[in-house]
């Protein structure tokens, strides 16, 4: 079970994997940037030690709820994207980083 008071940090675990996926599919780069922005806002809103003025501004605004909704939309879009990717036959998709390489035909 995940603790409810420190959930902000869990988003950062997905970011290295998303940037690796962005090498293959440039559309995921937009998802990566969106999640970096929302994760940063969440951290600034949860931990006042990083910037007390920013923390107060975020807490007093509807920004945390907006970030939560954006994260949910991104989650739904990414689930759909990866489900569609796995439903396609492997020969219809590009291979990750060109592996395995095709031998040139003579």
Q: What distinguishing features does this structure have?
A:
mainly alpha, 106 residues
List the helices and strands and how they pair.
Blueprint: H1 15-24, H2 27-46, H3 52-60, H4 63-87
Total strand count, please?
0
How would a textbook summarize the main sheet?
A: none
Structural class: mainly alpha
SSE string, helix = H, strand = E?
HHHH
Can you give the helix content as a percent range? 55-70%
Query: What's the number of domains?
Result: 1
Individual helix count: 4
Radius of gyration: 18 Å
Low-confidence stretches: none
What does this structure look like?
The protein has one domain (7-89). Helix content is 60%, strand content 0%. It contains 4 helices and no strands. The chain has helices at 15-24, 27-46, 52-60, 63-87. Helix 2 runs antiparallel to helix 4 (63-87).
Would you summarize the structure shown here?
With 106 residues, the protein is mainly alpha-helical.
């Amino acid at each position: 079970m995940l603790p409810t008071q420190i959930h902000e940090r869990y988003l950062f675990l997905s970011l290295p994997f998303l940037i690796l996926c962005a090498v293959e599919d440039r559309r995921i780069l937009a998802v990566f940037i969106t999640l970096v922005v929302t994760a940063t806002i969440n951290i600034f809103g949860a931990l006042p030690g990083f910037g007390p003025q920013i923390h107060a501004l975020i807490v007093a605004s509807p920004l945390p709820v907006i970030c939560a909704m954006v994260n949910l939309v991104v989650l739904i879009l990414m689930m759909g994207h990866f489900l569609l990717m796995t439903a396609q036959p492997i020969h219809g998709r590009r291979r990750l980083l060109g592996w395995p390489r095709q031998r040139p035909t003579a």
